[in-house]
Amino acid sequence: MTTLAFPGADTVEAREELERDRRPRVDKRMAAAEAIRRFVSDGDVIAVGGTNHARTPMALLGEVLRQGRRELSLVRPLTCFESELFIATGMASKVVTSWVGIGHGWGLARVLREYVESGQVTYEEWSHLGVGLRFKAGAMGVPFLPSYTMMGSDLGRQLDLAAVDCPYTGQSLNAVPSLNPDVALIHVQRADVHGNAQIDGYELMDADIARASRRLVISTEEIVDTDSLRLDPARTTIPGFAVDAVVLQPMGAYPHECYGHYLADEEAFREYMDAVRAAGSQGAREYVEALVSHPDHDSFMASVPPHRLEKLKADAKGMMPR
Amino acid sequence: MTTLAFPGADTVEAREELERDRRPRVDKRMAAAEAIRRFVSDGDVIAVGGTNHARTPMALLGEVLRQGRRELSLVRPLTCFESELFIATGMASKVVTSWVGIGHGWGLARVLREYVESGQVTYEEWSHLGVGLRFKAGAMGVPFLPSYTMMGSDLGRQLDLAAVDCPYTGQSLNAVPSLNPDVALIHVQRADVHGNAQIDGYELMDADIARASRRLVISTEEIVDTDSLRLDPARTTIPGFAVDAVVLQPMGAYPHECYGHYLADEEAFREYMDAVRAAGSQGAREYVEALVSHPDHDSFMASVPPHRLEKLKADAKGMMPR
Amino acid sequence: MTTVDERRLAAQRGLDPRPDEIMTISASRLLEDGKVMFAGIGQPLVAAALARRRHAPNLTVILEGGMVGIHLMPGELPDSTNEMRAAIGAEMLTTATDIFLMAQRGFFDYGFLGVAQIDMHGNVNTSLIGDPERPSVRLPGPGGANDIISMCNETVIVTNHEPRRFVERVDWVTSPGYLTGGDARREAGLRHGGPSWVVTDLALLDFEEETRRMRLRGLQPGVTVEQVVAATDFELVVPDHVDVLDPVTAEELALMRHLNGETDQSAENGEHRAE
Amino acid sequence: MTTVDERRLAAQRGLDPRPDEIMTISASRLLEDGKVMFAGIGQPLVAAALARRRHAPNLTVILEGGMVGIHLMPGELPDSTNEMRAAIGAEMLTTATDIFLMAQRGFFDYGFLGVAQIDMHGNVNTSLIGDPERPSVRLPGPGGANDIISMCNETVIVTNHEPRRFVERVDWVTSPGYLTGGDARREAGLRHGGPSWVVTDLALLDFEEETRRMRLRGLQPGVTVEQVVAATDFELVVPDHVDVLDPVTAEELALMRHLNGETDQSAENGEHRAE
After folding, report:
1. D and B make contact (3+ CB pairs below 8 Å)
2. Radius of gyration of chain A measured on its C-alpha atoms
């Protein structure tokens, strides 16, 4: 085999890379700027944790926008407006997902539509489980997994998925190729300095994404003692040995939501959508310009009226089961 | 395909069975005697939850011994003396596992050895991951999963495992056949009347076993309100729609351990091993005879000196993280 | 059955159902008690909440974000299948991938889908309009829809009945129905499930067993066969006799609006407790 | 390096190491700080605990029961890899299958195995003695061993050095080493890992790069090459020069016994805190 149909699908090579670049148990804390500088390169396939507006690693993505990268591919099961920021600025040339929309009743993703419809960005459409199994195969260290997903549909045909026959039953299924992304960005509720991380509420695909990826940067609402993880170890979703960098970043998913910490800021969605409705992709670029004019996420957060943030936090806490 | 190399590996048929025999959300509580009578038949492949001496469904297994069955196959990742009770009484004709031993420094499983060495029972040896992937494939509804497990070894050769080639990379791996056991018996810490069940501490392979199995009987240390599950839903491991019967059975893993509730009773291990050392498989049969002379597990538990049980419970509670 | 009193009551209140409300209520009636439903946001979730309140209190609702047995609070139905509001109060939370793997195993009785286009064999398009290589409209895509219709035991499709949606051939098969009809779905390797019902503002439809062509099964009250045929841009199978569906009752409508958080005070009955 | 004082101290206390203690301590010295070790019960766990106390405080220890980063309490090391005592205090608990899948991905630096038989190419038998069709002894079987040696980045084998264990050809390949030597392991599809070291009460051995034959690399103090050769029932590769391993120190021995819960009061140093 010389060229793979699906970039990032060679688990043998991904493992050899992992064996070369071990992640020993050290203090992995660093600023977002350093983590992104060290672990995100031009041309990377980036797996974005969370889904839609849930636990999106917005601070880390903002730092990528701040530093600037080229020819990125963004992979995410369900995609929200964060992808548009990369498309409109020309940093992403490809989006791999099962769904793109803004949510909250905002309807279609206008910038993405514009770029896809005019052929300026490559849009690779997978089923939701297809994206999930790509990460799962990568996490399991195998080059493919069999599934019914996308059989008979134009998705499977367009992607040129191969069939695989069960050697015991003869049943033919789709072979979903593995994916070991170049780097993953994931936001969590808490982690220790080694990167052992706990996720509250919905995990989505983040455990598989973390293990599949060749490099992993996590941002976390808080850093905790390792011993505190031992009180509820079943909640630890990401083992430290999979982690390259731990970025302490309160409000790290803002303006998206972080389970148990804050809801999504619908007003920020409105600001973004108003800009896009008024000026199309230029509106998105202006949004990015305003965002990256802040030296970091903390400084961006300081620009948001505190009462808005307090309400998002109070509403989230008020919803928690008791 | 007429005959399958691996019984229970046809996921299409297992699913058709599931569609025929739905498990609507009703009150599924029943006594162990009724659950075993309804859901365990002669000739069944039984998946036994837990591993070794951890959260073994001893009360449910005891009820199978009490009622008596023939030609059973027992499947378990790591097997303890419970398998010997079925072998010595002639109820099990096959053991499928990666390991058999008594643990606690008791060394080899003497009765199993005797029966395997004399060819009276079929012993099917798999790798630990091999057993795990059989259940996982069954739980995922696919007929096989690719893995490095057992490649190059006599295990894979003896089992006549087939290779499967990745259609993208060309890499050849072992195809591990799925398993949808006829019935699974699993012991948990808590469940609601619908069978939504939470497991504390080690889950082992029980989530996959529960979903793979065609019928599922769970025993539980306590029955709780559904609303109490909502306080920590990430701990719910078995969804009610996978469950056929819920048996309220405190001390349901005794004399094995149940995380957070009681440790294994080493004295009971000694009694069993003394009987086996003294009289071989006849000792195991006498152990079963004494066990099934009690009409149910509660009555068996009443025969154990209370101070022993209190100590096992206190020691377990004393170990819990705080 | 609707009583005269209820109709009068509805009329008095000016509670005429909108087309989307008729669809949601019709869909909710299909849901049997004790079963498991893979739901999406919007109409499916409202239909589920309504069924749970009326005739199916033991319906288990699943969301693709990993939620099993979700809590449906009147007026606070979630905006997304992947958010805190959807997760709080669930009986079980697992991973997103795991939800679809449970579907693949066969645990889910119903899937629910909306469509941009649907064809005579129940194939669904939610990806694009126009030439697939250079679409004139890029739509959100499958999300979970491809997997839902491929893996759930049956899939109910809920959509407005318009010629631009009911097309001879969808521009893109996002989510496979019966493909080219007959045994084509099974021959493509999809051994289970498929679209069972299509619920619209005009009618209830299913698929003929042999040909797997879409068939008219019931008319919404006041709708004619001709209207349905005119709103469908392919040849429907129309039996000699087609039943008229039970009309939406005032009680269904009021309860649905209450669950949906609409500020119709007449629908409020003082209680605001969780489902 | 052992100081004279320590040796004298050990002699005074009658602390001569037993063969299994020599092996455990030799194995512990191979473990580097910051790495990840897939451990079994008994010697591997004691070796891990010792390494963590001495030179590898950041060694992460994994157990097949789903435990990641376990807590090693002196005198309370678990009896099983699948029990409460092993799970309490772990940094992460996941499923048993998941542990092996993490191994398959390549996250684990070291595996540790014991053997009933091992052959010249590092193949391991823990399944049976005699004719596979009708074994004269049925042993416990692989447990996690087949997967560990197939998937960990390297695997350390710890065993007593006896001719009945070091055999020309194992009766049964439970856990694959280099199979028939050379590239055979790779050709069989095992692209990663393999046995790296064999630690015995007599010697430290590895595998020659080209042939993948077992090679003598170090002698336990007081042991001769001839003794090792005599205890090995196949032809070892013996280099011209073989180093003598550092002797077990009194400090290592005392600490190891303390961790192992042996009631040697002289080994107690008053602290009984967790690792």
Report:
1. yes
2. 19
Q: Which chains form contacts with chain B, at 3 or more CB pairs under 8 Å?
A: A, C, D
> What is the chain C residue with the closest CA to A260?
C84
The answer to whether C81 and C41 have CB atoms below 8 angstroms apart is: yes
Residue B260 pLDDT greater than 90, yes or no: yes
What does the pLDDT profile of chain D (275 residues) look like in tens digits? Answer: 444 455 455 544 556 899 999 999 999 999 999 999 999 888 999 999 999 999 999 999 999 999 999 999 898 888 888 999 999 999 999 999 999 999 999 999 999 999 999 999 999 999 999 998 888 999 999 999 999 999 999 999 999 999 999 999 999 999 999 999 999 999 999 999 999 999 999 999 999 999 999 999 999 999 999 999 999 999 999 999 999 999 999 999 999 999 988 854 443 333 333 33
Q: What is the pLDDT of residue C4?
A: 47
pLDDT tens figures, B4-53 = 568 777 899 999 999 998 899 999 999 999 999 999 999 999 999 999 99
What's the CA gap between C18 and C26, in Å, rounded?
12
Catalytic residue from among C64, C83, C209, C268: C64
Residue type, B152: G
- Write out pLDDT tens, residues C114-139: 999 999 999 999 999 999 888 899 99
Question: E strands within B240-305?
Answer: 245-248
Vertex D169, ends D167 and D172: CA angle to 5°? 110
3-state secondary structure of D175: strand
Q: Which residue has the tokens 């600025």?
A: A89
What is d(CA C224, CA C242) in angstroms, rounded to the nearest whole number? 10
Q: What are phi and psi of A138, to 5 degrees?
A: -60, -40
Q: Is D64 annotated in the active site?
A: yes
CB B143, CB A171: distance < 8 Å: yes
Find, in chain A, the residue whose alpha carbon is nearest to that of B173. Answer: A142
Mean predicted confidence (pLDDT) in A43-66: 98
Bin D175: left if φ > 0, else alpha if -120 < ψ < 50, else beta: beta
Kindly state the DSSP code that residue D31 receives in the 8-state scheme.
P
Cβ contact A216:A60 at 8 Å: no
Rg of chain B taking only CA atoms, in angstroms: 19
Separation CA C124–CA C133 (nearest Å) = 18
Q: From residue C267, how far is each of B264, C21, C73, C260 by CA, in Å? A: 58, 14, 15, 11
Amino acid symbol at B300 = F
Q: What one-letter code names the amino acid at A3? A: T
Query: What is the C-alpha separation between A32 and A66, in angstroms, rounded?
Result: 11
CA distance A158 to C185: 18
Q: Is the pLDDT of residue A3 over 60?
A: no
CA distances from C133 to A27, A101, C128 (A): 49, 20, 10
Q: Which amino acid is at D55?
A: H
> What tokens does D20 get?
């299994």
Q: State whether ipTM is beyond 0.85.
A: yes
Q: b or e along A32-56 (b: 16 or more beta carbons within 10 Å of the residue's beta carbon)?
A: beebbeebbbeebbbbbbbbbbbbb
| pTM for this predicted structure | 0.95
Nearest CA in chain A to B234: A201
Q: Peptide bond before C19: cis, by omega within 30 degrees of 0?
A: no
Q: How far is CA A193 from CA B31, B185, C130, in A?
A: 49, 41, 51
Banded model confidence at residue B317, pLDDT cuts 50, 70, 90: very high
**Rounded Cα gap, residues A122 and C138, in angstroms:** 12
Does the CB of A305 have a partner CB in chain C at under 8 Å?
A: no
- Is some CB atom of chain C closer than 8 A to the CB atom of A314? no
Contact A97, A75 (CB under 8 A): yes
Give yes or no for a cis peptide into A7 (omega within 30° of 0).
no
Task: Please say whether the dihedral angle defined by the alpha carbons of residues B111, B117, B119 and B125, taken in this order, is positive or negative.
Answer: positive
